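Re: weekly structure request thread

Next one in the queue (451 aa):
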Amino acid sequence: MARATTATKRAATPKPAPSRPTRGGGRPVYIVDGARTPFLRARNKPGPFTPVDLAVQCGRPLLLRQPFAPDAFDTVVLGCVNVIADEMNPARVAALRLGLGAAMTAYTVQINCGSGMQSLDSAFRTIEAGRADLILAGGTEALSHAPLVLRQEAVEWFGEFATAKSTMDKVSAISGLRPGFAKPVIGLERGLTDPITELNMGQTAEVLAHLFDISREAADAYALESHRRLATAQKEGWLEGEAIPAFDREGTIHDHDDGVRPDSTMDKLAKLKPVFEKPHGKVTPGNSSQITDGACWVVLASEEAIRKHKLEPLARLVDSEWAALDPSIMGLGPVLSVTPILQRRGMSRQDVALWEINEAFAAQVLACLAAWEDETFCRKVLGLAGTFGRIDHGILNVDGGAISLGHPVGTSGARIVLHLANAMKRLGGKTGIATECIGGGQGGAMLLEAV
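Done, posted below.
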């Protein structure tokens, strides 16, 4: 943690976010529908679906229930981080497989954990500016299909052997072959490590736990509640219509998020050992998001498209914000991205009925809540006159989150926005915030309004 500690001393008081003029003035943009696959845990081997398979699995039922033809969309935007070699530009591949037509433009976006939200934001701003009326946007990720990567020494050896011309050159190259060359590195492990700070995402959560004095017990209690809330949502049927069953090539039906552990207890969680900072760390497999596969699509429309196709909006997408900070404390991204939205809208936390903060790690979510309650942080970093205040846990991630559900990184941003819209409708909330931290030291947030 020595390197992290040095970094956080510099980053604990980043410059206040610059004031921005009030955004808007463009056309209203609405979320009219959306769907996702169940989130499936990665189990040490490639899962039954590739990223495009997942996008198609939830896309087909979603399109079938629309009153317009699939080719009515103006474009398709899809977030995906771990694009596999057989599916370059998965947005385009998915659009073609979904029958949107050869003339349908489609592009893929990547901003790590914010990719699904970035796709919605790209669609939002395009419709708002009058350049489109109907866009299919979302995210997909099959983390179980993350590639195995050869070590650099092995790559160099293969290159030397491939370019060897004479027999002696080839014999010489073979002599350099080492047994370790046959042992690949898991690409996901490298992808979840920041190349600037050399900290993996779990270590950044440990940094925040240290800075904001988040206890292991508090992190475990938060994780336990996430599982209980998701289990309740599944039992009560609150996810029906949002989470659509997926059918793999073997004919197996995947009809629920399979990472939920309703039988978990504080005693069971307490027995799990820290993963990233042994032996005294606060972050364990039990209070971290799960590695999963899953996809989500959202249909965004202008007022003109709503009238033309007689659509019923779920919510209005009002505003969005992106922020950046030192990668070693990337988990505070939600704090820096949410606050400017509320400031320019003249809103306070009391004006927000429901919150979705992606649960990368329990300690990370709790650190965000603690930062908003810390007067020094709020004054120096956020430029507020006092504390932002406490967010009631009763209106935060009301149906669980990535700790119980999983975090397919390119998908989560779209999922939390869609689920927020559905939860607002179910509970009668007038406004909602969806936000997430982003690996590499960024954060994204969106403000929704009931219609």
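The first strand starts at residue 29 and ends at 36. The chain is about 35% helix and 15% strand.
Next request, please.
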